[in-house]
Amino acid sequence: MISETKFEKLFSSPLLRFQVADHEDLNAALLAEGAAMRAEDGGVSKSNRRGWHSTGNLFARQSDCIIDLRAAAEMSVLTATRKLTNKVDPETLKMKLFGWMNVNPQGGYNAPHTHPGAHWSGVYYVSQPDTEDGSSGMIEFVAPRVDLPHWEILKTSAFRLKKRIRPAAGEIILFPSYLVHWVYPNETDAERVTIAFNATFRK
Hints:
single chain; alpha+beta; five-stranded antiparallel beta sheet; globular
């Protein structure tokens, strides 16, 4: 006979989701801001494929909607950090936020990537086209561990290889920046608009 003495979860990767209040008005303003930005410049090429990625740090803009979104992003990062540790007060650290807008038209997607050098990465969903089936609009995370395929036989979420979700407009998702992630192609004829950001702490 045996008696269990301890149970731990080792090396887990947190994924947090937040709902932004009154997001309908915020999203309408962000869409207008995005249209103005796209009229200003053609964007840059990063992980985006067939889509538009804004230039520079979005949070440097002084529009009310950007200021409001920055506050929500900061709050999500502070909340998540406090949830994981009580040994450091994140407000005693300097937080750098860097954000950008992604616009994926039909066929647009984001290739697998990470965000080196940051602590948290997040995505705010401005516009998520409706779809009844398929993978359109989904973001997928890949397990950061190797040698997992043979664990599939046990059918346990503790050793899953991938996790994908389809967040709704008005949601912020937050995850460690080391997680490989990518966005499935937009299968609809409406644009999928998100604002991604990195949060990095310094003493």
